Amino acid sequence: MPIRDDVLVVGGGLAAATSALAAAETGKSVRVVAHKKSTLRQASGLIDVLGYVGGEGPHADPYAAMADLPEDHPYRLVGEDGVREGLRLFDEAVGEMYAGGHTDANALVPTYGGTVKPTARYPASVEPGLASVAEDTLFVGFEGTTDFAPGVVADHVAAAGVPFETRGARVPFPKTFRDDARLTRFAKALDEDESAGGRSVGVRRALAETVADHLDGEERVGFPAMLGDTHGDEVRADLSDRLGAAVFEVPTGPPSLLGLRLEDRLFDALDEAGVRIATGNPAVGYESDDGEIGAVYVDRQGTRVPYHAEQFVLATGGLVGKGIDSDRERVTEPVFDCHVPHPDDRYDWSESAAFGDHAFARFGVVPDEELRPTEPSGEPHFSNLRAAGGVVGGADVAREHSASGVSLATAAVAGGRAGEEA
Ligand SMILES: Cc1cc2nc3c(=O)[nH]c(=O)nc-3n(C[C@H](O)[C@H](O)[C@H](O)COP(=O)(O)OP(=O)(O)OC[C@H]3O[C@@H](n4cnc5c(N)ncnc54)[C@H](O)[C@@H]3O)c2cc1C
Q: What is the mean pLDDT of residues 335-355?
């Protein structure tokens, strides 16, 4: 029996999940085909909407800052309404996992490198550490783990001009693991309150006792985001009670437990919305008739299987996710071969300064007002294909601190329209 849905979403990250949720809200049948795990598992779990424009910032109000973005920026196409709709879908999908009570203003969140990041949404476990709250803070890291240096984090956060004192302390984790133990192993020990090495007490109590020796009146304590996985709320509450201080998680780099938790939650939300999900195989091509796509081919162990639908959303990510590909000569979009403008001369793709205004950062398909990828003429490639997320060009999401916001906003519009038209 042929595989047939109203809407087919190609991709497996934040943009694909949000597109599928938006389409499912219209009551249509929706399927997601995803090749591999997305960048969510490496990402901080923060949802940045817009922090900087043209190198200026951080901006307190991302909506006001949008007016200064270039005309071809995706936010200019979807408008403030599109951004708000993306955030609404996100808030409903994640529920209490993310802190409620958001305003339109950016929050300032300390991260593992010690930067203070302007962001629109953050996990509830991060909330007690917001830099706008004037409470002295102790950052705690663990011996044997090098990627979270508490002293450096404390110094950098202080240098950012925050209105409170910061200190760092490195302590031994109360249980010894193999040198190559993953972050999830620490989280599991805290989740299950395993017995501390060589002692008859649990790791939570042992950890709290060790950290208490370093506390010097600080009102809150920040740990790298590894305070439990399935029982995180309980772990934080337990540590907080024992320490007599608020306890929070600092978003880390890859591998990121906050990102993994978010990915799990989004896929649960897709299940709850009745979206079908097929993972592990790539979309490799399509069939079309008279400018309309009829099916996408998915490579299943060497067999090209057609997935039919009325409407399609391309959400395969940017250069990192492989939604945009490049060789020495060209930049391409591999599934539908949509047009990706780029300078002919490869030396013009980047600047010499590492954090410069690189052309490659904005590579992606060029959407029309319906978010349909367009040909060089400005006409849509296909009447029933829309694009969302990192595959859409025109935004320098790393410099702007806008990656997840662009994904949510474009996905809300692309997925919603696809659902309405199917
Ligand atoms: C290290 C890191 C840190 C980040 N930190 C932040 C942050 O702090 N704040 C923030 O707002 N954002 C952050 N982001 C960005 C954010 O996580 C997403 O990368 C961004 O929103 C783009 O999401 P996406 O869904 O478009 O693409 P991706 O997450 O790249 O997902 C693309 C998906 O498409 C699938 N795919 C690709 N090709 C095919 C195909 N042919 N067939 C089927 N499936 C395919 C991939 O396997 C993948 O599942 C970070 C990203 C990274 C990598």
A: 85
